[in-house]
Amino acid sequence: MTLQERDKNHLWHPLKQHQTHPESLAIVKAKGCILTDEKGNEYIDAISSWYTCMFGHCNEYITSRVSSQMQTLDQIMFSDFTHEPAIKLSENLIKILPNNQNRIFFNDNGSTAVEAGIKMALQYYFNLDEKRSTFIAFENGFHGDTFGAMSVSGLSVYNGPFEDFLMDVKRIPVPNERKSSRNFSEVTKSIQKTKDCRFHL
Ligand SMILES: Cc1ncc(COP(=O)(O)O)c(C=O)c1O
After folding, report:
1. Cα(144) to centroid of ligand 1, in Å?
2. Are residues 119 and 137 in the same domain?
3. What is the average per-residue pLDDT within 8-23?
């Protein structure tokens, strides 16, 4: 049995319509931007594995550093523990971030990073004793698969079955050079229509 056939026995794939596209391409090797499938066919990974692989697949520096780290300290819960790689990465990131940033909160994927951002915004007002519940988001965005991230994304076939359970979000058009003043008035109208609105422009 090929990997492609075995895959269909037990696996669901994310963001995939299995009924109309049952087959998944079985990749056995990757180097730089080239992927090789189980039959030896080569493909250019032009989307950099959903833009997570911008330094190339099996990058020698990254694989050697990951391998040596795994042999020294593989994992530690991050709540009450810390470690030098995280400290060093935060120090390096702070150097390239705008001056008003001085703390990093690490997450392990894009969706939960968006959840953390949403929770920080909610907690900011909770701590001020001003509970707020409405978000403003750009139309046609995609921020991930978790409930908060789906809520602040644009409407999509992926979210359809879950829409009744999403957070309260007002969607506004993405600003561009030609439409910036229209966008600004739509943003202010949207803010004023929310039940959380505390100001009038
Ligand atoms: C802008 C943006 N935010 C969040 C995500 C979700 O990331 P993840 O798939 O790691 O949960 C994506 C994924 O494509 C994205 O493009």
Report:
1. 5
2. yes
3. 93
